[in-house]
Write a structure and sequence with these properties.
0% strand
Length: 81
Amino acid sequence: MNESETRSELFAAFQTLAQVIPEMRCGQLMAAVGELCADLHGRGLWDASDADLLEAVWQFRRNYEEATVVQSKSEAETGAS
């Protein structure tokens, strides 16, 4: 994938992430993904490549979805008791 395609995919991934987590503002999403990118690659928003940020967006979404599933299961088990 070339740089232009990566950048387009990165913007699309941020847009999708914003739709998945509408309660987070754009700046909050950027900051959270930037922190995760720093954890993953040692480079935050300013220094990360678009490919690094794209990977961080994907990982952030996976983490969010896993946490949501765990929370839903926990609530279902509590409600069934």
